[in-house]
Structure to design on (337 residues):
């Protein structure tokens, strides 16, 4: 078990450290740098939406999807106030309310 | 000590503190999510020590859940390590995009910071770097906050008791989404950024159902970048 965990730790650490180290000294073409500006946006969008829209392996766009409703509220709050804490708080309140109501 | 050094020390400290403050909601979310992990790990036959070791040295939620499920299913060690690698390949993209901001950081410090790189710490850190420039102290603080959340929850939950029941009941697992939305939305300022976000979102939803593990994140993110850059060129 310890051997397996060590193996997992080594491969995981390599994914974390390798590019973080290597891409410091590589002079990157302008196009790649422009791509990097968009990368966090792509990663974040890709990490957020499936969790809000897919439930039990199915696309679930419905008012009873509590996560989706909370997500929409968070987006609206973020658009208006541009605050991470406000966006988080509004979504959490929506979840708590809907969990009681539904 | 020169004035310049003093100012720098102060700002490092300030960066560290704001990293802890902004990392706190994420730490809470990770803690709640991690409470399930320790419980599942013990059920799969890991000892308390094994579970703590895994959360300490692997420190990667999705691949730890996958490993525990595979251990329960008697899958071989080689396959588990391969799955771990695949699930964590997205760190490569994150590392590559953070790297240009950390050119002055010494390699040994970078080696330490690397362990704190995860989905949550990345989202906070890159957003900060893009607004205020690179700061190893900020990245360190966020990494520490997320580590405490994850490791702390294993300390509690691997004791074998499912304290919280289902964390979804309290909506705490929503914190991940709330924070990410709060970070993402203000970045959507022009056509390329909006196009990239929309593409990443739609592609991920479509791909998540067909692509095993979380490789869909990498694929969707790369397609999002390409589409965003195309709209940039078309302007």
């Amino acid at each position: 078990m310890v051997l397996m965990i060590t193996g997992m730790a080594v491969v995981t650490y390599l994914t974390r450290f390798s590019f973080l180290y290597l891409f410091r000294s590589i002079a990157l073409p302008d196009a790649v740098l422009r791509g990097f500006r968009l990368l966090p946006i792509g990663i974040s969008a890709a990490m957020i939406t499936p969790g809000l829209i897919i439930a039990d392996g199915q696309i679930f766009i419905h008012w009873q999807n509590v996560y989706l409703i909370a997500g929409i509220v968070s987006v609206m709050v973020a658009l208006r106030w541009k605050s991470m804490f406000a966006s988080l708080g509004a979504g959490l309140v929506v979840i708590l309310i809907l969990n009681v109501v539904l | 000590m020169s004035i310049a050094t003093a100012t720098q020390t102060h700002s490092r400290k300030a960066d560290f503190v704001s990293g802890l403050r902004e990392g706190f909601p994420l730490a809470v979310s990770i803690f709640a999510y991690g409470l399930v992990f320790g419980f599942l790990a013990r059920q799969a036959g890991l000892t308390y020590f094994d579970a703590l070791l895994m959360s300490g040295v692997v420190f990667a939620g999705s691949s730890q859940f996958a490993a525990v499920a595979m251990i329960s299913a008697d899958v071989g060690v080689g396959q588990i390590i391969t799955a771990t690698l695949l699930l964590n390949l997205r760190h490569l993209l994150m590392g590559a995009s953070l790297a240009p901001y950390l050119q002055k950081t010494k390699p040994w410090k970078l080696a330490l910071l690397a362990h704190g790189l995860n989905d949550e710490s990345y989202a906070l850190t890159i957003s900060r770097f893009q607004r205020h420039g690179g700061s190893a102290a900020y990245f360190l603080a966020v990494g520490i906050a997320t580590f405490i959340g994850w490791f702390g929850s294993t300390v509690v939950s691997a004791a074998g008791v499912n304290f919280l029941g289902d964390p979804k009941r309290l909506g705490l697992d929503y914190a991940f989404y709330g924070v990410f939305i709060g970070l993402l939305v203000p970045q959507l300022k022009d056509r390329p950024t909006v196009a990239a976000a929309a593409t990443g979102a739609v592609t991920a939803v479509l791909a998540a159902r067909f692509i095993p593990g979380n490789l869909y994140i990498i694929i969707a993110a790369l397609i999002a970048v390409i589409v965003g850059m195309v709209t940039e060129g078309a302007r």
User: Anything to note?
Assistant: Chain B is about 75% helix and 0% strand. Confidence is low (pLDDT under 50) at residues 1-7 of chain B.
